[in-house]
Amino acid sequence: MSDSREIYTNQSGVHDNLEKVVTKHLNAEFRKPPAEHTVNAFHAVAAVIASQPDRPLIMDSCCGTGVSSRLIAQAHPQAWVIALDRSAKRLAKEYDEPLPENLIFAQVDCVDFWKLARKAGWQLHKHYLLYPNPYPKSVQLKYRWHGHPALADLLALGGLLEVRSNWALYIEEFCVALGIAGYTTHTSEAAEVMVSSVTSNHYEAFKPGDEYMTLFERKYCQSGQTVYCCLSQLS
Q1: Residues of the domain holding 224
Q2: Which residues form a coiled coil (predicted)?
């Protein structure tokens, strides 16, 4: 069985400043200029998808070595699957199986790529954020995706957003942030709840199927940890 430490945090619940931070980011443009390598990668990806523009777009952000990206591409052969990660080393991992023809890897800063995609008017069919870095210290709220200045760009891309984590509080905060932004969250495909305030608590344990989506998911589950999932239809 794999050994994985559970997350330690000095927070006792949803961050006291979450509503303030989310509201600020939703009402202010994130002015960070995109890095040149991400701009170049975006144009390269855009050129590929322009060859078959009618295909739905699925994004797998912070995809790591691309285990999830391959599974997503195989499950959605009709769609373009755009897999993003900042690490060339992780993206360069070799597999025995050939790359699905609908899968596009890009070494980018996700924050910059989201901004460029939003500016270009992209609308996603699905968007995966699987086991993002939790940044568990209270002072690190602004580094979590739901507390990051890029939140507005992330939400504007639309689609069915799926977030998974082994930290219940991360998912709880993400659901609350979505509620502040006016979105409905789903704790499973069959259940739907409206998150309307920072005191809402709508998330649940998630049991992966026979095939783990990521190496982290496998490690967490095989070490006996509970993983959590939140879904939201953004468009």
Answers
A1: 18-233
A2: none
